[in-house]
Each structure stands twice: as structure tokens, then as C-alpha cells.
Amino acid sequence: TIKKYTTGKLVLLLFFIIITSNVALTYSNHIFSNITGILPGVLDAQLFYSLDVATQFFTTISPAGVRYYLHTIATIDAIYPLIYTTALAMLIAYILHKKHIKNSKLDYIILLPLIPMIFDYTENILTIILLCALPTMYPNVVYVLTVISSMKWSAVIIVLLFVLMLLTIKKRNDASSTQR
Q1: Do 81 and 156 contact (CB within 8 A), yes or no?
Q2: N or C: which end of the chain has fewer CB within 10 A?
Q3: CA–CA separation, 74 vs 25, rounded Å?
Q4: Is it the case that residue 180 has pLDDT exceeding 60?
Q5: Under 8 Å between Cβ of 51 and 120
Q6: By the 8 A CB rule, do 51 and 146 touch?
């Protein structure tokens, strides 16, 4: 099981990799904005965007912007969901292990970060499909993309809130055990 192999050092290493990946994505997004003139940059980095914003993105992106997206941003974004999913799953496993929770039903909670990862990969695939299809536009696919993106960010927020809840419970248990 993942709990056996999860250490605090490994979780810290994965979060360092997340920070490094975020820097790479932010830098790539900045270059993308400079190439295309599209602000605030790539769609999937935005918490929410409307159908109009998405449509404008796909109708105004230059061929150089498409090439840069497909060669650089799509490459980084192919790896990033695996990194943050692994890190969040290991963090949850680490917290559960440190709390000595041995309920087999809760072991499935470790899989919770897979939900945003699935939405993230779906969003990436739809974006690539739409970019490769240009100049042809598929409004229904653009609409689905906006919904998937919102679902991804909602799932990320839910997972992070769950982790914060686990951390809070852990602190309460630590505080109550020292008062005995």
C-alpha cells in the first residue's frame, strides 16, 4: 500500500517538484502571452473562463502560438497532473499514516486526487484537439472544454479543502494528546 512507502521527505520532495513545475508553467505561459499577445495566457491556468473567452482564444491564436503551445506547454502539462496527483495522494496517505488511521474504507480516500487529474487530462486533450483543428472551430467542444475546466478547478479545491481538514484534525488530535 502507498501508506508504507510514504515518508515526510518524499512528500516534501514532491511538493518541491510541484513548485518547480509551477515556475516552469508560469514562465511558459508568460512566453506564450508574449508570442500571441493573448492575456492572461493559456486557458487551463485560469480558474474560470467563459465560452466567449475560450472562443476568442481559439480564434485569435497565431500559428506560432499553436506551435509553442503544442511543443512546450502541452509537454509540461502532460507531466504536471501526474506530479500533483502523486504528491496529493502521498500527502493524504502520510497524514492518514501519521494519525494511525487503519480503516480500510478510508484507504480509498488516497485516490481522491485522481478526480482533478482526470479532468485536467481531459481538458488538455480537448485543448490539443481544438488547436490541431484550427482554423475550424467546434463550438460544442469549446463549451465542453469550459465545463471540464470548471470541474477540474472545483475538484482541485475540494481535494485541497479535504487535505486541510485532515491537517486540522491531525493538529486537534496532537493538541488533545499533549493535554492528557
Answers
A1: no
A2: C
A3: 10
A4: no
A5: no
A6: yes
